[in-house]
Amino acid sequence: MLAFILIIVQHQAKKGIKRYLKYMRLPFVLHGIIMMMLYAVGTGAMLAFFFFIATILCVFSLLTVSTGNF
């Protein structure tokens, strides 16, 4: 659910920045660089989020196995 929200937010941010850049009339190369940076930040945030959840699940399963409470 949170990942879905992140995707929507990222999409809205891209649309807003595209519109902003259109008004600014920036060179296409600069526009491409900014979009690449945005994409990298968004992807990195999502990867970190999934890694965080995986770590929690891993620790939780290890704790349940070690204590013997299934």
SS-based class? mainly alpha
Which bin fits the share of residues in helices?
over 70%
Number of strands: 0
Spatial gap, N to C terminus? 27 Å
- Overall mean pLDDT: 76
* Number of helices in the DSSP assignment: 2
**Count of domains:** 1
How much of the sequence is in beta strands? Answer: under 5%
Q: Which consecutive residue ranges, at least 5 long each, have pLDDT under 50?
A: none
Could you characterize the architecture of this molecule?
Helix 1 runs antiparallel to helix 2 (28-67). The protein has two helices and no strands. The protein has one domain. The chain is mainly α and 70 residues long. The protein is elongated, with a radius of gyration of 19 Å. The chain crosses the membrane at residues 23-41, 47-65. Keywords: Membrane, Transmembrane, Transmembrane helix.
Write a concise synopsis of the structure shown:
The chain has 2 helices and no strands. With 70 residues, it is mostly helical.
Give the arrangement of secondary structure elements:
Layout: H1 2-24, H2 28-67
Helix pairs in contact: 1-2
List keywords for this structure.
70 residues, transmembrane, membrane, 90% helix, mainly alpha, single chain
